[in-house]
Model the fold of this input.
Amino acid sequence: MTITLSQGIKLVFDIFSDEISLAWLERMRNRFSWPLDDPGRFYGFGSLEEQQSDAERRLLEDINIINSYQHIIHRPWTNVYDQDLLNYLHNIFEQYHGLLDQQNTDWWLAASEPVRRSLARLNIGVHRAESVARSSQPRFVCTWYGQPKEKRLTLAQIERNGRLENNWGGIYLNYVEIGKTLEDLSQDNDQYIGDDAFRPFVHYSSDFVVTFYDHQPDLDRIAKYFSQHRTFFQHHGIDSVTHPLVMPYRFKVGQLRYTDREQLISMISQQQQITEITIHETGHPANT
Done:
């Protein structure tokens, strides 16, 4: 697969041949009926000041569009470091957007398409702001607006293919649920935790994320949050932090062909826009 950026740089990936990778590849071949949400959805590239300004501008634009239609966001904007405000905004998105592929709230059905897009972008904006606040490592995300999230991973597939790390240059399934994983809830210390707040990583689509860092999840923090909210998770049929539906698994489907990391990060920082994604119909290497 080749991803072309705005000034012509081409990122070439080897896609693996395991069951998850091939299932994702099938979704990628059928993505053309839906537009790419935001071809500039890059995080952690450029100066922190530039990232903060961009994140605030995008969020405020969408908040103003939403509130101009109906004033549902009542808390005033502070800054990207106010995690409780970001949790509140994410909760607004969940309430008015509806569950995965069930956009049937009265608000959603009555809103115009531009207002709907702003509500959908509110979710993206929250994650962009969180990325800035945490000085997150560089990555970019591709999601397709309106693509049905109807494909599911089985528990067996999750256990066989889930990994507890991100690798530099890896391409991974993107989380597509409306809600948060246990890992997300623990990282945000989210106190807006309701029945719809927790959504394990089960559905997938052509959406993906490319990471330019090596990382392992904070298992101690995740276990602490689980212990604090054990009754909630037991209500959802999960009695252990090692259950596959709460393990912070990643699902890697490919690897970037590139070795000069510092040079590539510098190049991408100047080209934070995707212009083309091409699937090459050739053999696929194994996932190693």
User: Anything to note?
Assistant: Strands lie at 2-5, 10-15, 42-43, 139-142, 151-152, 170-173, 203-204, 208-211, 252-256, 274-278. The CA atoms of residues 67 and 104 lie 20 Å apart.
